[in-house]
Structure formats: structure tokens, C-alpha cells
Task: inverse folding
């Protein structure tokens, strides 16, 4: 059974995920534990794996970090991505095709660097066009990150209380997005 | 059929209910079990719907739109709401669905999908326990 899933998440994809994941966790590790680890006891990255099941298929995700606890968003986010990869044809009943695995990979890669340890997990939803959307609806704010075929990713922000709304392309506006996500925690 | 262009059909009145099937991937249940629809359900440029008046004309209840789609909910927006967001509303009858219509226009940017969603009401509310 795992072969079905691992065939979809290639080594290259997992490697890229690993890279960005390591960067995030390394940063957290260095800030939290810098004082506890001497210069002669540098942390050694370790290979970690986690398996997710969806519609009878198994996917294994690998990454490298220092064994620290995973943030609360990790499992729901990864499960959301895996659930998209197993959607059957015509999943929307209007003729939608399968979700493009490259788009899932791109989304994983981008979002992984934007979420902090206490960030609320976004919902991961498919688009009929084959793209995907990450979304939060919290505290009167709608935040959507859209990844679609042949289009530059962007995010849409709307404050339902103030009426403010704006749209920004990614990755150019990653800093602004990181701030908005941080305020949703 | 991508690439088609639809003009707004003025014979479709503003209060016409446009029915859209909502699969589980677009539903989020809150803590009370109330289903909320993702804006993703309303983002396709050529958004398929059923015109309720055509179904009624043919003696079909609205729920017939999800008769073969277990676990789906059925939501409705009005033609006037779609038009207020610069969308064209057109008839597009198909052999297998004479009531088929299209809400046509760009929706992914400008929050149009979410604003269409905000005007949606449940016609057949999905039950969390029935979603498989």
C-alpha cells in the first residue's frame, strides 16, 4: 500500500519539503535552545517520516529536523494535502480533473516557510481548475492563498469588520502574508 | 468545455435560484456541526448551476440536482447576486441536464468567489454524519 503514495510524493518533492521544513525548525531550535547547546554539541539533523492515509492510499512524508515537537498545524495541513492527491476524477461532480501534484508541492514548499509554531492550520481545499486553495476564516478575517495552473500564486485578504480587502502576488509579498497569518494565531 | 464565452441572458429573472452541488471537499463544519462553504465552490470561471425554474417546469424538485450524488449538499445563489458581482448568467442545457446553466466570469481574483459564497443559502443541507 505505501508504494501508491510514495510514488506520488517523489524523493525530489520530499527533499524540497525537507529543506524548507528544516529551515523553519532550525530557526526555532536555535532561538529556543541556543543557550542549552554548547558549541561542541551542535545538533545533528535527523531524518523523520510520517505516514498519512487517504482513500485507501498511504503517503509517507520525510524531512530533516532535530526531533523537536511538531507544530499543531503540521498533521492537519499534511493530511489536507494528501487528501487532495487522492481525489477521484470528477470529484466536484462537474467534471473536475485530478489536482496537479506539482501545485501541491509548490504550496507545501511556500506555506511551510510562512507558518509559525502556534499558527492556526489553514483548510486545504481543491479548485475545480486543478489548483488548490489554503484558507482561514478567523476573527472576522478571510485569508485565501491560491495556487493554480499557469498562474502566479497570490493571496486575498478581507477584513469583514473594516471592509478592507487586498490581493497580493507571491512570493513577492511573503513578508506581508507572514504578518497576516501571525495575527490569526 | 473551457474557452466558451457566455453572454448574460436577460430572460433569467433576478430572483431565479441557481443551484450548485457542494461536495465534502468544499465543506467545513464548525464546532456546532454547521456546514460552511468554501469560496472555492464558486471560483470556476464557467460555473455550472441548475436553474430552479427549469427544474420546476419539468416537475423536478430542487433536490433532484443531487439525486445521484450521495453526501453532497445543494446551495443556491440568485441570478441578481451573481450579476451584482459582474457575472453573466446564461442557460446551457445539456442532454443529461436540461436545467444546466452557467455563471460566467472571472472569479478567482478580487474575492468574487467568496462574495458569491456569502450570498449562498442551503437548499439541501448536508449532514456531517452522512458524508463518506
Result:
Amino acid at each position: 500500500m505505501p508504494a501508491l503514495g510514495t510514488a506520488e510524493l517523489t524523493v525530489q518533492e520530499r527533499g524540497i519539503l525537507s529543506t524548507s521544513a528544516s529551515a523553519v525548525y532550525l530557526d526555532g531550535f536555535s532561538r529556543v535552545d541556543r543557550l542549552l547547546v554548547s558549541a561542541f554539541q551542535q545538533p545533528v539533523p535527523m531524518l523523520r517520516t510520517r505516514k498519512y492515509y487517504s482513500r485507501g492510499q498511504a503517503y509517507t512524508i520525510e524531512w530533516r529536523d532535530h526531533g523537536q515537537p511538531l507544530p499543531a498545524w503540521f498533521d492537519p495541513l499534511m493530511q489536507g494535502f494528501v487528501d487532495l492527491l487522492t481525489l477521484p476524477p470528477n470529484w466536484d461532480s462537474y467534471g473536475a480533473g485530478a489536482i496537479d501534484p506539482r501545485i501541491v508541492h509548490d504550496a507545501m514548499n511556500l506555506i511551510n516557510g510562512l507558518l509559525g509554531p502556534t499558527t492556526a492550520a489553514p483548510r486545504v481545499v481543491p479548485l475545480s481548475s486543478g489548483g488548490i486553495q489554503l484558507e482561514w476564516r478567523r476573527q472576522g478575517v478571510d485569508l485565501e492563498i491560491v495556487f493554480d495552473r499557469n498562474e502566479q500564486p497570490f493571496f486575498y485578504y478581507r477584513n469583514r469588520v473594516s471592509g478592507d480587502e487586498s490581493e497580493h502576488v507571491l512570493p513577492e509579498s511573503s513578508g506581508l502574508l507572514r504578518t497576516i497569518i501571525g495575527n490569526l494565531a | 468545455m473551457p474557452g466558451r464565452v457566455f453572454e448574460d441572458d436577460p430572460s433569467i429573472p433576478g430572483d431565479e435560484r441557481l443551484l450548485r452541488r457542494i461536495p465534502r471537499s468544499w465543506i467545513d463544519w464548525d464546532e456546532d456541526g454547521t456546514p460552511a462553504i468554501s469560496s472555492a465552490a464558486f471560483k470556476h470561471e464557467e460555473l455550472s448551476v441548475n436553474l430552479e425554474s427549469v427544474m420546476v417546469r419539468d416537475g423536478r424538485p430542487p433536490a433532484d440536482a443531487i439525486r445521484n450524488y450521495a453526501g453532497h449538499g445543494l446551495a443556491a445563489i440568485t441570478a441578481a447576486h451573481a450579476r451584482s458581482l459582474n457575472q453573466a448568467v446564461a442557460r446551457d442545457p445539456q442532454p443529461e441536464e436540461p436545467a444546466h446553466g452557467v455563471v460566467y466570469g472571472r472569479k478567482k481574483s478580487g474575492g468574487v468567489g467568496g462574495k458569491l459564497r456569502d450570498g449562498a443559502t442551503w437548499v439541501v443541507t448536508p449532514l456531517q454524519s452522512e458524508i463518506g
